[in-house]
Amino acid sequence: MQITISNHSKEPIYEQITTQIKSLILTGELAEGAALPSIRKLAKDLQISVITTKRAYEELEKAGFIYSIVGKGSFVAEQNLEVMREKKLKVIEEQLGAVVTNGKELGLSFDELQQLLKFLYEE
Amino acid sequence: MFHLIKRDVILQKKQLLIFIPFILFFIFMDVHPVLTFLVASVFIPFNTYAYDEKAETNILLNSLPYTRKEIIASRYLGAIFYMSIAIVLTSAALFVFGKLFSLSDIAIGSGLFLLFAACTFPLFYILKPGYITTAVIIGFIVLSAMGPPVVLYLAEQFSGITDFIMNLSIPIVYTGSTVLIMLIYLLSWGLSTAIYQRKVF
Amino acid sequence: MEHVIEFKGVSKRFKDFSVQNLDLQVKKGFVTGFIGENGAGKSTTIKMIMNLLKPDSGEVKIFGLDYRTHEKEIKERIGFVYDANVFFPGLNLKDIKRIVAPAYKRWDDRLFYQYIEQFGLPLNKAIKTFSKGMQMKASLAIALSHHAELIIMDEPTAGLDPVFRRELLGTLQELMIDGNRTIFFSTHMTTDLDRIADYIAFIQNGRLVFQQSIHEVAENYALVKGSLDLLDRDTEKAFIHIQRTAAGFEALTDRIDEVKLIFGDAVVIEPASLEDIMFYLKGGVAHVSFN
């Protein structure tokens, strides 16, 4: 499991970890049931405080992405990842719909919208 | 706690090499055996105080899993232990060089040592570090210079007691003094423990 | 036992300084950084943790035990690293080990030699010939060789070069993989704590100003910068202390939401480093004029 954190980002480190693990799970790179490194090992590998990885895992567990067993470790939750993915796609669809409507109101062409999207994507 | 006593040997490895020549010096100067025994006994226990003078040593000892009682106990028991060894070695040396000495010399020498230790050890815990060596040296000088005259003076003043003691048989005098000295030593031990328990490092 | 160190209402008075009403709690399995400027009471607190000093009032519990009844048991489980060398300077590491090892029931020679090799320390040279960094490494090697559950470090990185400090922190991070170990690390180099601390306890003038996780600190404190005309008697109240210069102001707040409400986008809000927090909680520097 490869994670890269930035010490200088505005985003708190635990959030960066949470985000990266979430996408690893959603894209299937981390399979259901896969074991995650212990919070202490991860902290040492990333050279950050244990309490930070602890928080990241806690947030992931709250959101239902992983579960932990005392003494054994943390694992990717086996559950409706498909459903979660569907839901997220639906939200993206709706948001894009709104973007298209607003864009048309302003008279933006498809290319201009695309440029804007490209710009934001590369940020 | 026995390890605490052992540490003196480890600490003073180099000084111990001087020990034998040191004793031999006194032997060849034909010093009274009592004094030789006394000086030999004093060597190790009092040298340790040169190390214990430093604040860091106390911090170290009290950070290790030892109680303050144990630390003091190791001092007092260690003194007896090292005194015994010193006497054995000194006796051997005296014997080898054909110098005469008697059991009473040993008895008086060790008795004086214990008395001296009992009087000075508590001072080590009362006085601030740095003053200890000075105190010991001064104490020693004072004791040897003033001791005999004071005793003589008291003996004259309290001739009643002196006569009483003189008339006691030798064994009783020796037993009596031994008990007295042991009591003083124990009292000193208790006092030092009490002082050390309250110390702040 | 959740708290390895627990102080309840601990006070100690000296001639010209006192430590008041400390309620310190150090959680097991984490690194707690203890910060404060020189003279704030850090060493006094550490001495009370090690029973070198007894408090005038209050209760000190280590591993849930009392020093009055369990002194040896507690000290068996503590490894200590002080800011000055406490080991006999004239001795070499071999002899020091001969004196220290028998004191501990769980001394592990194998571990000791492992650390000596890892830290590159000579066994046969007197400690007084070691550099400050080497002395600290030696203390650490000894502290880690008896399976201690609590490691107390009093200003261990003072006077050490940055490269070495990094290596030390790496070693400590390695140690924390064992969830039973706790580190209590007093320092005024707050940058060291950024890398490793989980909790921060901040002492000032003998009082514990706060003890929080690093997340709570980040969420509670922030640095606010803006132009001077934004300040008036009312808006000033949102800040702990304000530094004014001709170019504007910089202030520390522990009410981030309130600041956002009052000033909105007119100010820059940034995370406050531990150094900022220490500086502003002290009261900053007297007004400096650039006119």
Bin the strand percentage of chain B: under 5%
Number of helices of chain C: 10
Order of helices and strands of chain C: EEEEHEEHEHHHEHEHEEHEEEHEH
Outline type of chain C? elongated
Strand order of the largest sheet of chain C: 7-8-9-4-10-11
Number of strands of chain C: 15
Tell me the number of strands of chain B. 0
Q: What general form of chain B does the structure show?
A: globular
- Which sheet architecture does the biggest sheet of chain C show? 6 strands, mixed
Quaternary structure classification = heterotrimer
Distance from N terminus to C terminus of chain C (CA atoms, Å) equals: 58 Å
Strand/helix succession of chain B: HHHHHHHHH
Average pLDDT of chain B, rounded to a whole number, is 81
Number of domains as seen in the coordinates of chain B: 1
Question: Whole-number radius of gyration of chain C?
Answer: 22 Å
State mean pLDDT of chain C (0 to 100 scale). 90
Low-confidence segments of chain C, given as residue ranges, are 286-291
Protein name (chain A): GntR family transcriptional regulator
InterPro entries (chain A): Tscrpt_reg_HTH_GntR (IPR000524), WH-like_DNA-bd_sf (IPR036388), WH_DNA-bd_sf (IPR036390)
Pfam family, one (chain A): GntR
Organism (chain A): Bacillus sp. BS1807G30
Description:
The complex is a heterotrimer of chains A (123), B (201) and C (291). Chain A is mainly alpha-helical and 123 residues long. Chain A folds into two domains: 13-76, Arc Repressor Mutant, subunit A; 81-122. Helices cover 59% and strands 8% of the residues of chain A. Chain A is built from five helices and three strands. In chain A, strands 1-3-2 form a three-stranded antiparallel sheet. In chain A, strand 2 (66-69) and strand 3 (73-76) form a beta hairpin. In chain A, helix 1 (13-26) packs across helix 3 and helix 2 (39-46) crosses helix 3. Chain A is elongated, with a radius of gyration of 18 Å. The model of chain A has no long low-confidence stretch (mean pLDDT 88). Chain B has 201 residues and is mainly α. Chain B has one domain (1-200). Helix content of chain B is 86%, strand content 0%. Chain B is built from nine helices and no strands. Chain B is globular and about 55 Å long. Chain B starts with a helix and ends with a helix. With 291 residues, chain C is an alpha/beta fold. In chain C, 32% of the residues lie in helices and 27% in strands. Chain C has a six-stranded mixed sheet, sandwiched between helices. In chain C, strands 1, 2, 3, 5 and 6 form a five-stranded antiparallel sheet that branches. Chain C has a four-stranded antiparallel sheet with strand order 13-14-12-15. In chain C, strand 10 and strand 11 (207-213) form a beta hairpin. In chain C, helix 4 packs antiparallel against helix 5. Chain C is elongated, with a radius of gyration of 22 Å. Chain C starts with a strand and ends in a 9-residue tail after the last helix. Mean pLDDT of chain C is 90; it is low at 286-291. Chains in contact: A-C, B-C. The interface between A and C is medium-sized, with 14 and 19 residues. Chain A: Residues 11-79 form the HTH gntR-type domain. Chain A: GO terms for molecular function: DNA binding; DNA-binding transcription factor activity.
